[in-house]
Structure formats: C-alpha cells, structure tokens
C-alpha cells in the first residue's frame, strides 16, 4: 500500500514568483539603509541575471543550490560595489537573512493546507522534496509534514534521481510505496517516475501535457488530490 506522499513546494502549494518579488523588494529596502553602495551599482535584475550567471559560470558545482548561488551572487555584488572583504562576510549574512525570512512568507493556493492536513490525518507519512529553499517549518507546514529534503541538502536538484533516492533511503521506503506530487512535468513527474514512484501532476493552469511519459494521475485543483491518492492506492493494492 501507499505509505508516503511527497510534495514539491513552489508553484505546487503556492505561487513562488510573487514571494520572490516581495523578498527582493525587502532585500533592497534593507540595502538602501545598510548597504547603499550595492543599490547604487546593482539592481534586482543583476542578482537574478548577471551576478547569478557570473557565479554559476565560476562555480558550476553550486548551480543546483539556490541558496549557495544567492549567497555567492550577493558576495560578488558587494565586492563589485567596493566593500572591503572583511565587511562583505557580515553583509552577505545579514542581507541573505532578510531575503530568506521574507521568502518564507507564502500564500497557499486554495485547498493546499487543508489537503495536506487531511492526508496526514489519514495516516500517510507526508514530506517535501524541493529544489527551492522554502522551509516547511517556517511557511506553516511543520505540523502536517514529517520531513523535507531540498536540492541544497541533497547536493543535486530534481529531476536527478539521487534526491528522490535519498528520501527513500532516509525514510526506509520502497519507491512503489510513495506518491510524489508536483507541478513540473520534468523535475517532478519524470524525476520521480524514473526511480519508480507513483506521480500526480498538479496542473492548476489547465495546460496540455508537454510530451513524454504521463503522470499516474493529474489534477487541476488541489482539492482533487485526496481522490487521486485513493485511486492510486487502490491500483497499488491490485498489484499486490
């Protein structure tokens, strides 16, 4: 039977772009008061674009981690702005904390929280597998999720099989005991399916499937997920 349900977070349980936009605004407001030279030289687009590209090209081994890339981009930006190296360490730490805290202020999609809470109450083990750096404990999911693993911690990002296999090993699960749920046809559906997990595609925009092996099930509203989980569980029992 199905024992565990894992979720992607960004754009599956909430829209991430508005969250990042507000977090960047909060960051630059802090910088205007605490690091004006950075603001004089750089824009938000520089952090997301030129500075990010610069650090990823110089350190491709950190490309999987949005946290490490953001930290490196901030460091590069402060140095370019003329801050001394001994001051940059503290500025990077403080500015990232401002961004990171704001990044946790999410607005759940309709039915998201009650749906996850309901699955937990049904007795499923519930967790998160994400490429981003949202914390289940800071966004308000700690009471209904048992664990999480993100790309920074795993050392790889979805759809790499290692991130899924690390969860299986850590939770002592077989892939056929797990349903992974997410919005990305490649990172979530393909990645999880390739290690043998069942999959549910969250398609809130009603888009056409882009091609390739389809998910086990798909939903256009998060309220449909419990029924999809029950259906997969029934299929799983039939295979035993």
TrEMBL record:
<dbReference type="Pfam" id="PF00702">
    <property type="entry name" value="Hydrolase"/>
</dbReference>
<dbReference type="InterPro" id="IPR006439">
    <property type="entry name" value="HAD-SF_hydro_IA"/>
</dbReference>
<keyword id="KW-0378">Hydrolase</keyword>
<protein>
    <submittedName>
        <fullName>HAD family hydrolase</fullName>
        <ecNumber>3.1.3.-</ecNumber>
    </submittedName>
</protein>
<dbReference type="InterPro" id="IPR036412">
    <property type="entry name" value="HAD-like_sf"/>
</dbReference>
<dbReference type="InterPro" id="IPR051540">
    <property type="entry name" value="S-2-haloacid_dehalogenase"/>
</dbReference>
<dbReference type="InterPro" id="IPR023214">
    <property type="entry name" value="HAD_sf"/>
</dbReference>
<dbReference type="GO" id="GO:0016787">
    <property type="term" value="F:hydrolase activity"/>
</dbReference>
